[in-house]
Design brief:
8-stranded antiparallel barrel; mainly beta; 11 strands; single chain; 7 helices
């Protein structure tokens, strides 16, 4: 009797994935994770219909070996990459007590092909890094591995959370009734990528696999059309965003 093979996972969505980070206010020469204000993940689904800017809590991706959990949220959704980039530029503002303060521009830290895979009863965000070719200190600090996958779920905004945990009620996603039904009164849902298309969507990532291509049986670079390019897709001009973290893996 022939051995029955596990069925291939369903690909719910694929596209390009970008990692970026922003230094803390007034830090001119960041040199480590303690100098980081925020860590971002930017999703560009195939077809370029929209871009999602996601803030990742703990300022790093979950540890795979420990099956670590990290919370995050969709900060903004835009139809064009340049609108995401505009919000990541350097900004200067005046304060009453400390004068002029500067929030430096975000730096790119990685480009990848990604897919949302429905495997069994769970959905996984799997990626394969395409740049930098050799991850350096920056990628190590953010736990950006050459490839990895994370179980991904989206929180039901109609279900409460402990005080001080997650976004406030007014900040959470406001889903239309047709999409809210996806939760089926559960605390989390993961089977519909459209849940990520709303600002304030809260997510949980759990470290799953170091080699998702082998585990899930999907070659991400072959599956995703075209190459990731943060300079073309997101208009990250080198004159505005230091590129050493992306090209050389070092802090700048």
């Amino acid at each position: 009797m022939a051995e029955q093979q596990d069925p291939s996972p369903d690909i719910l969505e694929d596209g390009h994935l970008y990692f970026a980070w922003r230094p803390k206010i007034d830090v001119e020469q960041p040199g480590g994770i303690d100098d980081v204000e925020r860590f971002y993940m930017i999703m560009r689904p195939d077809g370029g219909r929209l871009f999602r800017l996601i803030v990742i809590g703990r300022k790093h991706l979950p540890d795979i070996g420990e099956h670590e959990r990290c919370w995050g949220f969709v900060e903004s959704v835009a139809k064009e990459g340049k609108d995401i980039e505009a919000g990541l530029r350097e900004t200067t503002y005046q304060t009453k007590t400390r004068g002029v303060r500067t929030l430096q521009a975000a730096r790119p830290a990685g480009e990848a092909a990604y897919a949302l895979l429905r495997d069994g009863s769970s959905t996984f965000l799997a990626y394969a890094l395409t740049r930098p070719e050799r991850p350096g200190p920056v990628q190590k600090a953010f736990n950006i591995l050459p490839e990895a996958s994370f179980a991904l779920s989206v929180k039901n905004p109609e279900k409460g959370a402990p005080p001080g945990v997650g976004l406030g009620d007014e900040q959470q996603a406001d889903y239309p009734k047709t999409l809210q039904k996806v939760f089926r009164d559960r605390r989390f849902a993961d089977e519909d990528p459209r849940l990520l298309d709303y600002e304030g969507a809260e997510i949980v990532l759990v470290g799953a696999e170091r080699r998702p291509g082998r585990t899930h049986g999907v070659d991400l670079e072959d599956e995703v059309k075209g190459s990731a390019d943060i300079f073309r897709h997101l208009r990250f001009a080198k004159s505005r965003h230091p590129v050493e973290p992306l090209l050389e893996g070092r802090w700048s």
